[in-house]
Predict the structure.
Amino acid sequence: MRDDHDILILGGGLAGLTLALQLKLRRPGLDVAVIERSRFPVPVAAHKVGESTVEIGAHYFAKVLGLERHLEEKQLLKFGLRFFFGGPSPGMDLAGYDEIGPSELLPVRSYQLDRGLFENHLAERARALGVELVDGSGVQQVELSDSGGTHCAVIRTDAGARSVRAGWIVDATGRRGVIKRELGLERATAHRNCAVWLRTAEPIDIGTWSEAEDWQARCGNWPRRLSTNHLMGPGYWVWFIPLGSGATSVGLVFDPALLSLARVAKLEGLLGWLDEHQPLAAAAVRARRDSIMDFRFLRGYPHGCRQVFSAHRWALTGEAGVFSDPFYSPGSDFIGIGNTLIVDLILGGASGLSARAHFFQQLYFSFFSSTLSLFTNQYPGFGDRDLMSLKSVWDYCYYWAVLAKLFFEQRITDVAFLQSAEKDLLLALKLNREMQKSFETAAAHRRCLPAEGHFVDHCAVPWFYELKQQLVNDSGTSPGARLQDNVARLDRLAGSLRGLLAASFDGRLLPPASRIGSVEAGAA
């Protein structure tokens, strides 16, 4: 290992390795080193959670980093997000649950990632591009320069401790947050949920949980098992995610005000709780008990940060900086966004660095705050079929119309464009704040309606298909005009959904599929 580098990345997980790849792809001559405490190859399946991607993260991996072939051949194509509302009714199979999700694959692909398979591939690609990947080594200490000099990190290797210097240093050490702890940058969030999870070596196919022909026919040739499947309830959701290695990831995410972590912090406790609240899930896991590969829990997983980018040439990426919630799978999105901003800061040179770092940090924190608002104080309403059918329409459309659009069109680092679009972006933020407050108020009612076997088909919402198609097809409209039109349609959609939300508590709602289809997703 050399002692001096252009860029030193602390942590060789998903965030650190993808940043190294992005830097080398943009500027092959850069001297990039990555320090990782694990040894490669890492285990498959029983490795890390964060397996589900959505549009921004999937586009970042496939197109920006050029990993599409690996994703198509070694990982699993994802059949969207899917939500089920039901519970412990005796004799009820999954066809009796209310279901929200797509009936067919919408444009723009996303993937289910086996993190072990993926990170091993990232390590191979990084080394092939000339990244110096030092595995089996930990970070003991970081000394940051605030005077324009080089930074220094003390690394623990098999041969003993050594000092490594670099012009830029990026913390990708996850929740350890080496730089965050060193500088006291921790910031708590109002959202303080918990999670427990496990992986089974044997597959779990949620599509076999009912033999009803009409239920099976809803999704045509696409198997439900390829979705990120959520079993929803008041204050919680249970996930089932298939992995390319053949394993299945299973987890429970919950509001600790409504469920004590102590109740489910051990496997027997989790299985007992599932027996009571989600017996179909309990039966599936119990049938594969001998193949359980791991069991973990995490208390208070959301966290903020006071600073993630510095003009003194350091930055934080991934969970070393901020993390909101696994619902809607935004983790890889924030890796892609954060890394893209960091690459621009590094390659943009010293001129104007302070202003760019400040602007990008404001932008990044705005995205984080907006995303966090989707979950804060809203878990009590997660068992409400009607509320979540309306909420999912807004949350998806807002994401595709604004944040995903900016990323796909490579405007996320275009300061001039973002400044010119400030009025529309601020209006979008305002609309989202207002809608999330409405959902939060509705969630406080904690309704859990009896399941009736309804299907809310997201493919029946015309704007869903249009917005996703818009991400990859150039309509010929200027980016500014397209964003302005999207925000105007979001404004109309907000009015429609607020009316339906009010009606839902007056008992005047149509069945979910008819209701969502009639919204016309922002039509005038």
Summary: The longest helix spans residues 479-504. The mean pLDDT is 94.
